[in-house]
Write a structure and sequence with these properties.
mainly alpha, Rhomboid-like fold
């Protein structure tokens, strides 16, 4: 008989923590996200402001928001965790959280930012460059994925009015691409 394994501790742990954050948010009628799982302009004398700069990636506004992010996250994440290891992937998640929160606070601090989509975009671009190990080569798949995902986000900035932070998607994708290029260079 086959047994179920906890095959990807960072990815599964993140998905579990995000699920717990979602349940907490639903049970508190949005208060949990406001206190712990979204980043917005607030006083830096508040210690929670610093915590939220990382934990905002765990928060989600709805079950659909959570599901949309986790489907891609759980699909790509375990492959990246196997390739790069748990510590490096956790660092990527924290880096994306910090960079996207700083960019958000600089350019769009009047709204709240939450969700794992910046991390998901980072993973997509990181995965698209992962196959190539030669420093002087850029995979065509990476170029196509970058053009499609980043191009779509730039288009949506100008032509859609929604509650989605395309800037976070773009920044997450850029972080993922840069990390991929760095890790590839590190292996050469």
């Amino acid at each position: 008989m086959k047994k179920i394994t906890w095959n990807s501790p960072v990815i599964l742990g993140f998905a579990l923590l995000s699920g717990i954050a979602l349940i907490a948010n639903l049970l508190t009628n949005g208060r949990a996200n406001q206190l712990f799982f979204s980043v917005y302009r607030s006083s830096f004398s508040d210690p929670l402001a610093y915590l939220r700069m990382v934990t905002h990636v765990l928060g989600h506004a709805s079950v659909q928001h959570y599901s949309n992010n986790m489907l891609i996250f759980l699909l790509i994440g375990p492959l990246l965790e196997e390739k790069y290891g748990s510590k490096k992937l956790l660092l990527v998640i924290v880096l994306v959280a910090l960079v996207t929160s700083i960019v958000h606070l600089l350019f769009n601090a009047n709204t709240a930012l939450l969700g794992a989509s910046g991390v998901v975009f980072a993973f997509i671009l990181l995965a698209s460059i992962t196959g190539s190990t030669k420093e002087n080569e850029i995979p065509l798949t990476f170029i196509i994925v970058t053009l499609l995902y980043i191009g779509e986000q730039i288009y949506e900035v100008f032509f859609l009015r929604d509650n989605v932070s395309q800037l976070t998607h773009i920044v997450g994708g850029v972080v993922g691409a840069l990390v991929g290029l760095y890790l590839r260079k590190d292996k050469s």
